Amino acid sequence: MTKPIVPPAAQFLRADAIRGGMDLLMFAHKSHLNRADESLAAQGLGRAHHRALYVVSRRPGISVGSLLSTLGITKQSLGRVLKKLTDDGLLECRTSTQDRRVKMLYLTDKGAALEHELFDQLQANMARAYAAAGEAAVVGYWTLMQHLMDETAHRHFLAFNETSRPLPR
Q1: 96-104 contacts, C-beta under 8 A, 24 or more apart
Q2: What is the pTM of this model?
């Protein structure tokens, strides 16, 4: 990669620097996720399916209601996503032992394999970017991203990370 552009020193709060940051966020997000799109498309899946697989992999046994809240999509949209993932043998739905009205979601072996494949593609890209930026920049990135969240989103982020399956070291 050529040398990254940065805002002028001490001018990072100017409107053009903020707009540039928003541009960066949009282009980086699109480019980063494009890495998984080809694998998803080969299976007739899209980014909504990927998001569901990702969340269920991090929180096995998540309820449908919690997944709905985490993804922030409509019930109808989630229903289509879950139906496709279930029909394709990637996800299974079990009835909660505490409350039969609650449906708990788990990845099947096939779903876990696909999610790991997708994660590996994205992890390599994140690791490359983290290495190029350095530890201080990564800490800054984590700080920046959390400050972009409103209070509700940040509470969801914190709760998600507290209850998610531990990441391998």
Answers
A1: 96/63, 102/63, 102/64, 102/65, 103/63, 103/64, 104/61, 104/62, 104/63
A2: 0.86
Q: For helices 64-71 and 151-163, give the axis angle rounded to 10 degrees.
A: 130
CA distance 43 to 41: 5
Go through the chain and tell me how many residues it has: 169
3-state secondary structure the chain: CCCCCCCCCCCCCCHHHHHHHHHHHHHHHHHHHHHHHHHHHHCCCCHHHHHHHHHHHHCCCEEHHHHHHHHCCCHHHHHHHHHHHHHCCCEEEEECCCCCCCEEEEECHHHHHHHHHHHHHHHHHHHHHHHHHCHHHHHHHHHHHHHHCCHHHHHHHHHHHHHCCCCCC
CA angle 55–52–142, rounded 5-degree value = 45
Query: Residue with structure tokens 């998001």?
Result: 51
Cα distance between residue 133 and residue 143, in whole Å = 14
10-residue stretch averages of pLDDT, the chain, 169 residues long = 78 88 94 92 95 96 93 93 98 91 96 96 95 94 93 90 70
Tokens describing residue 68: 């709905």
